Amino acid sequence: MRPALAPLVLLLALPALAQGTERHLYLDVHTFTPSLSGHYTGTSDGNAFNVDLKNDLALERDKTKLGYGIEYQGPRFGVEFSRDEQDYTGNNRVQRNISVNGQTFFANQTVISSFKATNNTFNWTIRPLVWPQFWVGIDLGVRATQVEMSAYASSGLTGIQAAADYKGTLPVPQLGPSLGFTSMEGRVVGKAMYHLLAYRGCTYTHAGADLRVFPWSWLGFRAFVDDEHFRIPKGSIKDDLDITLDRSGLGLGVVARF
Question: Per-residue pLDDT for 96 more than 90?
Fold first, then answer.
């Protein structure tokens, strides 16, 4: 199943599963392993960009560090903070001239690259519609994605021929509907959300679903899907830089409940 479809499936299943909403504090550690694709085209602070993360750099997931989250979930509101980080690396002979932060890499050069994404998310959920085991809410929050990109071309005879680095942050408000349920006397807890933002020609979508199963009342397991898309055209909010980023994947974790 595509991760983008999983939230819809969970939303359709919620009425049949619904059985309870309580007050709880959750602490979790997790891994999240999303795919990554996109491009940077244009200029930023006068430095040229013309690079596709997948086609030019052949970036693939290298390692995923443990992420963590802390949240309070109650019948009328919820507050959560989470952080996760992924590293991607690439090693590819480029088929065209590309540019990374003002540095040009020429066709047929072998470019070794890395891309690090760090995500910090704060979200506040207001629940205007609450039933004993089911709720409907509105999410208000912010998600900041910090990216660090580097690339270099080297030769065994002459050493490094060209190198470039870039750092940037994409802070995005989180706004949209969410739904949740509690089932089997609190042994199964789930929620789903869909966030959408359009501003000055930019568009951002973020869909997710989270399912938690508690074999013990205080300790359980978590599985979640997350699907995120940035579209930032030239002349909008990032100088004269056109950016697209697509991230989609599955996360797994262990969660403590108090």
Answer: yes
Token reading at 237: 């909010």
Which is more confidently placed, 228 or 160?
228
Q: Do residues 195 and 207 make contact, with C-beta atoms less than 8 angstroms apart?
A: yes
- Distance of alpha carbon 219 from alpha carbon 28, whole angstroms: 10
d(CA 258, CA 254): 14
DSSP state of 243: E
Q: Could you tell me the sign of the dihedral formed by the alpha carbons of 178, 192, 33, 98, in that order?
A: negative
How close are the terminal C-alpha atoms of the chain, in Å? 33
pLDDT mean over 5-12: 48
Q: Taking 90 as the threshold, does the pLDDT of residue 213 lie above it?
A: yes
Total structural domains in the chain?
1
53, part of any domain: yes
Residue pair 113/57 in contact by the 8 Å Cβ criterion: yes
d(CA 66, CA 156): 36
The rounded percent of the chain whose pLDDT value lies above 90 is: 72
Q: What is the pLDDT of residue 190?
A: 96
Q: What angle do CA 246, 115, 221 make, to 5 degrees?
A: 65
Q: In angstroms, what CA-CA distances link 231 with 32, 37, 81, 172, 223?
A: 22, 12, 24, 12, 27
Residue with tokens 């994947």: 249
Burial (CB count <10 Å: 0-12, 13-18, 19+), residue 155: exposed
CATH label of the domain that carries residue 46:
2.40.128
What is the number of helices (H) and of strands (E) in the chain? 1, 13
Residue 39 in this model has a pLDDT that exceeds 70:
yes
The torsion angles phi and psi of 101, rounded to 5 degrees, stand at: 50, 45
Is residue 29 situated within a structural domain? yes
